[in-house]
Amino acid sequence: MTVCTVTWNSREQIDGYFRALDELRPAVDVDVVVVDCASSDDSVTALEESRHLCRWPVTVVALDENLGFAGGMNRAIEQSDADWVWALNPDARPESDALDCMIGAWTEEQPLRFGSVTPRVVRESSQKTPRIDACGMRLTTTWRHLDRASGEIDQGQYQLRERVFGGTGAATLYRREALDDVALHGLAFDEDFHSFREDAELAFRLQEREWECLYAPLARVRHRRFNLPDRRRAMPSHVNLHSLKNRYLLRLYHQTAGNFARTFLPTLWRDVLALGYVLLVEHTSLGAYRWLWQNRRRLLERRRELRARRTAPNRAVNRWFRRDALPLPTARPST
Questions:
Q1: Kind and range of the H or E run holding 132
Q2: In the chain, what percentage of residues exceed pLDDT 90?
Q3: Which residues contact 195 (CB under 8 A, 6 or more apart)?
Q4: Closest CA to 254 of 187, 191, 297, 203
Q5: CA–CA separation, 135 vs 133, rounded Å?
Q6: Which of 90, 165, 229, 233 could disulfide-link to 13, CB 3.0 to 4.6 Å?
Q7: Has residue 176 got a pLDDT over 90?
Q8: What is the four-CA torsion angle of 163, 166, 171, 173, rounded to 10 degrees?
Q9: How many CB atoms lie within 10 A of CB 206?
Q10: Burial class (CB in 10 A: 0-12, 13-18, 19+), 323
Q11: pLDDT (tens digit per residue) in 234-266
């Protein structure tokens, strides 16, 4: 099993990241691959100096350019031949049994076709009131993908093992067989997405090839999240540009005619609001529209390629716009 992590100006997170990995007590062998996307701080030096804090073998790859989470994760996956790939953010802190809980849940739910397992992620903060960060991913009729239960006060809810649309790229475990099956031109993540929504795009491809995502509530990870919708103005301009571009790219790749008809009005209203915001406030994101137009022929070809590879019926994907989760055939509380 390989832990794959992408860093970018992550110096302050690195010691805690390695210490958390050192505390893992999995029943499987683990190795760690960290890809740094041309950090401007001393993240690479910190990775080399702090790797001894983790007892697992660590490979550090320093890139000369920032390829974003998608590109960095692809380079990390290329370094591994393991059956499992755990996408883990440098600001994520898994509990010692998190990995065993996810693999154990996947094993117990066979022969269902699960290509990924996502844990219960809680927010790490100085606030006394604990809050949930993610219990899987959900879709809305405006084509937003949201972390299920994000921001809710943690009162022990969401304890049922369930099927969800997908998992956050901050801490989701992927079956290598599934990643290889949905890869395009040998790449698991679509590098056009660069930053933001790349995990949702991968979730669509997995669902379209009949790989489901399992939510394992006993697997717990703490996460110090920075990128939230209400912090948009505090995020780097290039991240906001990619976020806007990718919301259209996601629909271009994966929306069907039937889904377009059912979600047209909600998405149109949101598109009008987004355009107005960019024109009036966030001028740095106008380049998203230009990029989409300039690359339209290549993107339409990618859409045709994705449609040709699809094996799941449209209704199997469209149901996620109505349901946050689906029960297992023998759904039961985790014990």
A1: strand 132-134
A2: 89
A3: 68, 69, 70, 238, 239, 242, 243
A4: 203
A5: 7
A6: 90
A7: yes
A8: 70
A9: 27
A10: middle
A11: 677 888 999 999 999 999 999 999 999 999 999
